[in-house]
């Protein structure tokens, strides 16, 4: 259990740390704030990747989404998510989302392959517990070199 809690602290710290260098973004959806970012899995600390069974590679991308209820501090909440991504040539990919729940935190993650300098446009459809929904857009370029 201590290792699990330690992993939670590491991933949360990593998300906060990468928010500056990887332009972590947020959007308001009703009474909630949705935080999201995308980066190369190679950027993840080895201990975090191992804890969540994420393959670290220059050619793997990682999407992280968390939903916080406004006024509830850092308490994560569940939501329904559907995510699609398109590259600049219009190829569409449906992202498989995996939910991670740990104490007061709920994260939604997805892993996917990327090519060097590939740009993906993500559309994140979020439906909160009170049935408020929104489409959030994120554009991210990935570098494999």
Short structural description:
With 145 residues, the chain is an alpha+beta fold. It has helices at 2-21, 46-51, and strands spanning 25-29, 32-40, 60-69, 80-87, 92-95, 98-102, 105-113, 119-127, 133-141.
Structure description:
The chain is of the alpha+beta class and 145 residues long. The strands form two sheets. It has a five-stranded antiparallel beta sheet with strand order 1-2-3-7-6. It starts with a helix and ends with a strand. Helix content is 18%, strand content 47%. It has a single domain (2-141), classed as Domain of unknown function DUF4426 (Immunoglobulin-like, Sandwich).
Main attributes of the structure:
Immunoglobulin-like; 145 residues; disordered N terminus; four-stranded antiparallel beta sheet; 18% helix
How much is the radius of gyration in Å? 15 Å
Give the topology string: H per helix, E per strand.
Answer: HEEHEEEEEEE
Largest sheet composition: 5 strands, antiparallel
Class per helix and strand makeup:
alpha+beta
Number of domains: 1
The tally of strands reads 9
CATH homology superfamily name: Domain of unknown function DUF4426
Q: If helices are DSSP runs of H or I spanning 4 or more residues, what is the number of helices? A: 2
Helical fraction: 10-25%
Strand order of the largest sheet: 1-2-3-7-6
- CATH architectural arrangement: Sandwich
Give the CATH topology: Immunoglobulin-like
> In CATH's first tier, which class applies?
Mainly Beta
Shape: globular
Uncertain regions: pLDDT < 50 for 5+ in a row? Answer: 3-9, 12-22
Ends distance:
37 Å
Percent of sequence in beta strands: over 45%
Mean pLDDT: 87
């Amino acid at each position: 259990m201590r290792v699990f809690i330690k992993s939670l602290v590491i991933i949360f710290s990593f998300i906060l740390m990468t928010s500056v260098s990887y332009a972590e973004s947020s959007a308001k959806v009703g009474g909630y704030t949705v935080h999201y970012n995308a980066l190369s899995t190679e950027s993840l600390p080895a201990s975090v990747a191992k804890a969540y069974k994420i393959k670290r590679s220059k050619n793997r991308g990682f999407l992280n989404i968390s939903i916080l209820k406004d006024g509830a501090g850092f308490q994560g909440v569940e939501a329904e998510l559907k995510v699609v991504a398109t590259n600049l040539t219009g190829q569409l990919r449906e992202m498989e989302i995996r939910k991670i729940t740990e104490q007061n935190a709920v994260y939604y993650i997805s892993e996917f392959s990327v090519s060097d300098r590939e740009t993906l446009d993500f559309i994140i459809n979020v439906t909160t517990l009170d049935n408020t929904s929104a489409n959030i857009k994120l554009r991210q370029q990935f570098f494999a070199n």
